[in-house]
Amino acid sequence: MSKIVSALLSTLFFVCFSNAQEFHVKGTIVDSDTKVPLDAATVYAESLRDSTMITYTITEPNGTFELEGKTDLKEVRLNFSYNGYKPLVMRLNLKPKIDLGFLHMEEMAEELQGVQVVAERVPLVIKKDTLEFNADSFKTRPDATVEDVLKKLPGVDVDTDGKITVNGKEVNKVLVNGQVFFSNDPTVATKSLPKDVISKIQITDTKTKTQEYTGQEGDGENKTINLTIKEDKNKGYLGRGSAGYGTNDRYQANGLLNYFKDKERISFIGTANNINNAGFSFDEVYDMVGNTRGGYNFASQAGLFNGYGKGITTSSTLGASYANKKKNQYEVNGNYFFSYSDSYNDQRTTRENILPDSKYYTETISNFNGTTNSNMGSAGLEFDIDKTLRVNMEPYMNISRTNSSNLKNTISTDEEGNKINSNETMTADDGMQRNFANRFGIIKKLDTVGKFVRFSFNNRNIENQTVSRLNSLRNIYGDTPSEEILDQQTQVDNDNDNYELEASFRQPLGNKLFLDVEYEYDYSQLANTRSVYDYDKTTDDYTLFNETLSSDFDFRNVQQTSSLSVRKDGKKLRYGVTAGYTFTNLRNQDYLKDIGFAKKYENLLFDMYTRYTIGKNKRFRLNYNSNLDVPSVSQLQPVPNVNNPLNIIIGNPNLKPAISHRIRFNYSDYNWKDRTGFYVYMGITMDENRVSQVTVTDEDFIKKTTYTNVNGNYDGYGGLGYSKQVKKDSTFTAKFNFRPSVNFGKNIGFTNGVQLEATSINVSPRAYFTFNFAELLELEPRYSVSFNNTKYNLEDMDRVKFISHNATFRFTTYWPENLIWGNDITYQYNGDVSPGFDKDALFWNASLGYQMMKKNGTLKVSAYDLLNQNNNTRRTTGQDFIQDFQGTVLKRYFMLSFSYKFDQFGGKKPGGGWRS
């Protein structure tokens, strides 16, 4: 097999390079009148026969460019484009080295100034901090999705789960015609929309609503992609549906229908499956292989599954979405989802518990079943009252019902293997949650450019009613054995209300310097009634009120923050300093026990940032933030929690708020000439008064846990990324990525009166390569290894070291015509896990599809976990433990499925295949 693969790869590379000649074209582009160099003009070469793009680049600040490429063509068309200038075109006979000298571009007529005038086929246009790609300039298969073309773009990476990064920055928002598409999950649009309906792909820094309206720059933490639909495709509908059934009664069905009319969009979406796909995937090859290659998951993004979904999940979702926009008047959108899920999961956990002078071991086996159904609706309303006043509102509502049961058995043994205690618990929960939230904002531009005032009011109101039953049997062994039985019912009524009022004012100080004044009032109230009833044999009901474990408290947190900021928004240099003073008032009253406390805190916090841009490609960022973290109610409330009879938890009302100091650094660069990207990042968070656990373990290994404040904890990270893209006209495209990273930290806690410190470091190099040959073959090998090292401050405790490996290979062919063959092979190895746990697995998914009905339909046979080796094993370490875990996974099945796609645009007859 290896010889066949080697021979195939050798043949491919021979075909790719045998007839290709390298060429190098250089020159300088200047204004024809002023002779001023044109920075970031686009230069690209295309074939004379079919206008297929061969390669492209952009000019440097001094107007120079170097265009390099490989092709077997003897003559090409060379294009020069710059916003606001007439395009320049020439035919060029290729030679290894060509110097064009100075090239003069003529400015457009005065009446067209400010209008974006570019050639239709320009692959890339740079406008300030925005990259704009022409989707048609990047060749893909005729049935490609937006995700497929994103993989072709320089500096853009899409991982196996659909997560998108641009030179190391995560894309957290994907818009269609400037509007949110169905949900906040970016993959909804990228996995469902066909590439052939997209005209432009714009990439920019993610901005807040205020930054968008006032013209401010984004903070550069994340990226936003905006997809512009072609004018002739922007009126009509497109849809897609698929259904499949397989062995072990596995099934999946998806449906999507979109209607477009200029800025108006109506969408319907639905899914049902029992293969762990909480969302969607319309991948031609890998969409029926469960959640290892997940589709987009708007359901979990919206909180519809309440944390369920681990193990094996049966789920169904129906959704509808509407969006419309009229420039300088309004923008509206609305979404509704109904979702149902049913999950079960069997887990096994072994834990080595670390004490100052000894160790003990616990093994836990649990069986979980849970169902949830949710109704979720949200809307976005934005109105421009006039050119200087904007009002927006974002209401949200979610009503969910959950039912679950969990059977758990735990056994603790000492270092000699003697059984010390055991615990068997059965819990059953029935809950209803109502969640309403709203954001309301007003922003008014004032008389001076950059001057504005803003008001916002946010609220979030959550009602939660839960009835829980707890049955437990705890046994203590040894010289004085004992047995304790708990049979209780708990009723919880929980009302959590949060209101936030914010007012800010910006005053320009001149020369891109601004002063911001801001005031924020934040009010939170948690009213919780927890009534615990013990079982009464005489009445055969839960009627014995347990006052010790019950509570009826009212917790209030009021924070007021006043801040001043000075910001500089220069063309190359941007920086800002913020000083804020926060008053915190905490009050808690337990009416049942007639106990309470009141706390007041005052804190001075600072934020600082600087960002420097070098040319169009290089960016340097340095940030410092300080944040206040108030302890949670469970950490403060002095009421015992016995949900786990082996670990009784009680809060500490004397806790102080924690203050975290966070420093982040980032540098990024992309070389358009060489198609290489590089970035490096690092950061560290250091805490004052971090809330940490204090645990006392008795001779029977029963824990009692509370909390205290400690100093000295920290968490850090760092890494770099390097990418290289190689392209030979339309024959092949190859990308290489190398991304090593490191995470480290120190965690401090207390066990039996002794301070325990766990210092950990994780080093994880990653490399992956993608190769596409003539849209007939795709290869995607990936490999990562993780080195984990944890050191404890106990003399008798050795370092804990373990290694995990992950290797993935995707092999997809689109030949012969209409036949699609896909293989997705993953090997995982978890070193040093405990005996009885699976250390490694070879996980192989495969599919064979045949396109029919003018390529509108695809009939496919899929195999999930072909070798039946899938597992879910992992090792983790903590402050005072080393733990191995294994849970339920989806096992081997085969599925036959059929998918169909259709569209109708601009009054044309319905068709399929996402016509160009």
From TrEMBL:
<dbReference type="Pfam" id="PF13715">
    <property type="entry name" value="CarbopepD_reg_2"/>
</dbReference>
<keyword id="KW-0732">Signal</keyword>
<feature type="domain" description="Outer membrane protein beta-barrel">
    <location>
        <begin position="444"/>
        <end position="900"/>
    </location>
</feature>
<feature type="region of interest" description="Disordered">
    <location>
        <begin position="407"/>
        <end position="426"/>
    </location>
</feature>
<dbReference type="InterPro" id="IPR008969">
    <property type="entry name" value="CarboxyPept-like_regulatory"/>
</dbReference>
<protein>
    <submittedName>
        <fullName>Outer membrane beta-barrel protein</fullName>
    </submittedName>
</protein>
<dbReference type="Pfam" id="PF14905">
    <property type="entry name" value="OMP_b-brl_3"/>
</dbReference>
<feature type="signal peptide">
    <location>
        <begin position="1"/>
        <end position="20"/>
    </location>
</feature>
<dbReference type="InterPro" id="IPR041700">
    <property type="entry name" value="OMP_b-brl_3"/>
</dbReference>
